[in-house]
Amino acid sequence: MSTDFVRIAKQCARGIPYLDKELRRRLSISTGRVFATPTTYYVIFSGRCNLACTFCEIYKDVDPILSREAMLRIIREAKQLSGRGFNVSLSGGEPTIYKPLYEILELTQQLGVNFGFTTNGLSLTKRNVERILSYDPFNINVSLESVDPKINEDLRRPMPDGTRRILDGIENVLAEKKRIGARVSIIVKATIMEQNYRTLPDLVQYFGKHSEVQVNFQPFVGVKNNPHWGQGFESPESCFSGNLRFAARELLGNRQRGAVRGVRALRGKSPRQDTRWRWPLWPRTIRSPGLGRAKAKLRHRIAIDVYFSKR
Known about the structure:
- The chain has helices at residues 3-31, 68-82, 101-111, 126-133, 149-155, 162-180, 200-207, 236-253, 292-299, 303-308, and strands at residues 40-44, 87-91, 114-119, 139-143, 185-192, 213-219, 263-266, 272-273, 276-277, 283-286.
- It has 311 residues and is α/β, with parallel strands linked by helices.
- It folds into two domains: 38-130 and 145-167, Transcription Regulator spoIIAA (2-Layer Sandwich); 193-311, no CATH class.
């Protein structure tokens, strides 16, 4: 039996509880009666962080902090309510400085709960990664604004040589995942801002060499006149066309499955007010087509047409 067949069979088995929840959710919406239970629990333990990023304010909110007892109770009660087919996502702040993290990982593994967290990646040393992946986490999200150290480290402070440390940390996760056959998803998350959006195609192409890395773009959310809002003359379409062409070439031309999984693009016209435009809050995902029919459909329209065409 081929390795790919076994992998796909396992993915299908894991996906059945999620399908059941989605069907129950739709039934609840259509009937007005409650048949569904939550599929994702987002938990912020505190704003405590080892960085003070220029575009972030949450690191200032160090108190209150979620206690160990409260966090473990949340896990148990989520399991009791949702059963199977749900995720718990921990963020902050920086989860790797949250003392109960390894107890949480151990409990979620014991209960069969899909657990993941969002990190700045500075603590993803080989030793830490080995310990984290031994608990079979569902996903690890790594925040990274650019592969250009000058841009990334100007946005994320204080972080001397931090870009190299983050990239090494991602490589550590990939290597350990391969070594032990872990299921963990590695997702690189970049916030789109005036300071970094021109370099985002480089970020996508950097991680395009890894079929196991997903790239996820998030819009910047901040107060009016914040300098992180996009103010350049280039439109989102012209900036991201490089990403989309790269994805189309890798996914459709070379047929490299999952070469740029989860590359999120922006769709539609960018609203303008004075000389300032803001990134739309409507992401779409380019995924490697798993079925021949889907692949054939996409071949007739390049990615740019698909994602920037009018509905």
